[in-house]
Specification:
This protein is of the alpha/beta class and 494 residues long. 37% of the residues lie in helices and 13% in strands. The longest helix has 22 residues, at 374-395. It is globular.
Length: 494
């Protein structure tokens, strides 16, 4: 594997600015890695020619001293982001052939800062899944393997293609979206840093909607500084998005000193689940000890309504998905199953266009919004969501950040949980509460399981306080000294 693909974004920027290598050379190295890694199925669209053109343009700007924040940095873009003139389908058959005539605000911000798009990353269909096995274009394979076991593992979801591409050194970073943990959980499964910003920090305009009150864009990278750099480029107020919040975007990278003395770190008892693997519990205790040894104050906190988070999420999110996905009817764009009868055309198009998991969530959402059940389910879930957010507000009166595990297990084999939707949904048990409350969260690789797979620790911050959360994450990164790499990098494409 070329040394250029082992660089961090920060190191790549420094090398480009000092002219140690060109943006074209950096891009070509990642194109070569992406070609070698096609067996992982991480990219569903390759935009290599466009990447070369953008890299050449970056070299001209760098030569003129006009480089942006991410000038010449090759990225993978989750297929949920609309990219002008490039196939954008949310990995669903129902959007086959859709090439948007516009650019999402987040990707427009990245291009403005000089980033280079290598291609569109695979994902669970419409971001509905925790294992990247619901994509119309087939499942993604995690570049990690269990020690002594060749079974292919899931990369997590829904941003599994983004995570696999970064872990396999096919891209320096990637965009993801997080509705209930879809950045943080795949980051934990693939040994990466995954950051979900505060709801409203990044524009949702041009991101294909799943659940509008939960969806939030964020970066997947191989280091905390890289996450800070990408978030700085992605974030910002957007008048086109009514949920975008007009607050200053700080220089996140400049705040990363790793100093946590006096930081108040909350530890919620409710995240100690019955039956949680001992290695997850042990890693959590180790993280607490690292903070304590560095002079942070460990504070036991209560989040009593946490136990209602999953049922609340799996009412609110499907309800919003049912509403958002009603627009895909075969009339204006995407798939159309022709029929002389209009109603039959709708039904045939949606039956053929949506996969089983998406259909399941549409049906659940339609049910909880229907007359006679709205008050019993949806309204009650909204009230519980308020109580969950209130728990965090109370906790943050006495702490600065909250420390928890990211996921209840390491990556599992493809097919292991496919027959049990509830088991799949439980992958989000540690990530969903912050999503319901709109809080920022970050997963940092902090250790390995007994089988040699990465495990993550999660930090949650106060609204729009990503800078302090990122600094705590930087400390965690330094303390953990996580340097393990996927065996796939040495073995080659599967």
């Amino acid at each position: 594997m070329s040394a250029l693909t082992d660089l961090t974004i920060a190191a790549a920027r420094a090398g480009l600015e000092s002219r140690e290598f060109s943006a074209r050379e950096l891009t070509e190295a990642h194109i070569k890695a992406a070609e070698a890694g096609r067996g992982l199925n991480a990219l569903v669209v390759e935009t290599f020619d466009q990447a070369r053109e953008r890299a050449d343009a970056s070299d001209k700007r760098l030569a003129a001293g006009e480089g942006g924040m991410l000038e010449g940095v090759p990225l993978a873009i989750k297929d949920l982001f609309c990219t002008r003139g490039v196939h954008s389908t949310a990995c669903s058959h129902v959007l086959d052939g859709f090439e948007p005539p516009y650019e999402s605000t987040v990707t427009e911000n990245l291009w403005r800062e000089g980033a280079v798009m290598l291609g569109k990353a695979n994902m669970d269909e419409f971001a509905m899944g925790s294992a990247n096995v619901t994509s119309y274009y087939g499942n993604v394979i995690n570049p990690w393997r269990r020690a002594g076991d060749d079974k292919p593992l899931v990369p997590g979801g829904s941003s599994g293609g983004s995570a696999a591409a970064v872990a396999a050194r096919m891209a320096l970073g990637a965009t993801g979206t997080d509705t209930g943990g879809s950045i943080r959980q795949p980051a934990a499964f693939c040994g990466l840093v995954g950051l979900k910003p505060t709801y409203g920090r990044c524009s949702r305009w041009g991101i294909i909607a799943f659940a509008s009150s939960l969806d939030q864009a964020g970066p997947l990278t191989r280091g905390v500084e890289d996450a800070a750099l990408m978030l700085g480029a992605m974030a910002g107020y957007d008048a086109k998005d009514s949920t975008s919040v007009d607050v200053v975007v700080p220089d996140y990278a400049a705040a990363l000193n790793g100093e946590v003395k006096g930081l108040r770190v909350g530890v919620p008892a409710e995240y100690r689940l019955e039956g949680m693997p001992e290695e997850i519990e042990a890693l959590w205790r180790r993280g607490i000890d690292w903070f304590k040894a560095a002079g942070a104050e460990i504070v036991d906190i209560a989040l009593p309504h946490t136990k209602y988070s999953l049922p609340t999420y799996y009412i609110v999110a499907p309800a919003e998905c049912s509403s958002n996905l009603a627009r895909y009817d075969g009339v204006r764009y995407g798939l159309r199953e022709a029929d002389d009868d209009l109603t039959q055309m709708y039904e045939r198009t949606r039956a053929a266009g949506f996969g089983a998991e998406v259909q399941r969530r549409i049906m659940i959402g339609t049910y909880v919004l229907s007359a006679g059940y709205y008050d019993a389910y949806y309204l009650k879930a909204q009230k519980l969501r308020t109580l969950i957010a209130d728990d965090f507000r109370t906790a943050f009166e006495s702490v600065d950040v909250v420390l928890t595990p990211t996921a209840p297990s390491p990556a599992f084999a493809i097919g292991e949980k496919m027959d049990d939707p509830i088991a799949m949904y439980l992958n989000d048990v540690f990530t969903v509460p912050a999503s319901l409350a709109g809080l920022p969260g970050i997963s940092v690789p902090a250790g390995l399981s007994a089988e040699g797979l990465p495990l993550g620790l999660q930090l949650l911050g106060q609204p729009f306080d990503e800078a302090r959360m990122l600094n705590a994450a930087r400390f965690l990164e330094i303390a953990a000294e996580f340097t393990a790499k996927p065996a796939w990098l040495n073995e080659g494409a599967p």
